[in-house]
Amino acid sequence: MNWSAFRDLLKGVNEYSTAFGRIWLSLIFIFRLLVYVVAAERVWSDDHKDFDCNTEQPGCINVCFDHFFPVSHIRLWALQLILVTCPSLLVIMHVAYREAKEQKLREASGDSYRHIYTNPGKKRGGLWWTYLLSLIFKAGVDMVFLYIFYRFYRNYTLPRVVKCELLPCPNVVDCFISRPTEKNIFTLFMVVTTCICIMLSLIEASYLV
Predict the structure, then answer these.
(1) Plot region of 85 (φ>0 → left; ψ -120 to 50 → alpha; else → beta)
(2) At 106, is the pLDDT very low, low, confident or very high (cuts 50, 70, 90)?
């Protein structure tokens, strides 16, 4: 990953954000992205390998794992992080479009040039709507993923033992999840930070209005 390019990107997002937006970005970067990269990926790296069932029936473990883990936590979080940060890039692109339009008009008009946008980064007109819709979209994405996690993993927690009776399992078998306590702690941490990010997005939208 090109960290210098990523740093420049964050600098651009910060430049056109309100105070609430800067706090939101810090939470995303420190408490969600870094936790995901540094710790969460390692916690879930062995989820299939160490998913044990008290049977040797071929295919039973794979079927049971797929039933209880339809989508991996780690992949859902990755998709959530991608979707929740995209709207901020749209704001930067809108500002870049304004600046390019201003530059093009300046070159075409010469001495008779008049500003279209005195400050291209100022949240007025179309940029105001882009910024507001980006906040609503970010809050909406986080809410949708909270619901998805709740549907897949009731109460956002994993049990130590699950019972599976799906074919081709010969009978009801006990399956044991790897490191359920550690995974529950990370899951609840991500849920709490997501709720805080939703609250900040809604507060920022109210402040903007």
Answers:
(1) alpha
(2) low
Which residues are paired to 52 by β-bridges?
A: 176
Asked if residues 164 and 53 have their Cβ atoms less than 8 Å apart, the reply is yes
C-alpha distances in angstroms, 67 versus 3, 79, 93, 123, 196? Answer: 38, 21, 41, 47, 31
Residue whose tokens read 């927690």? 157
* Beta-bridge partners for 164: 173
Q: What is the pLDDT of residues 158-197, one digit of tens each?
A: 888 888 888 888 888 888 888 888 888 888 888 899 999 9
48 Cβ contact list (under 8 Å, min separation 6): 65, 69
Helix (H) or strand (E) holding 127: helix 126-152
Name all domains of the chain by residue range, CATH numbers in brackets.
3-107+122-208 (1.20.1440.80)
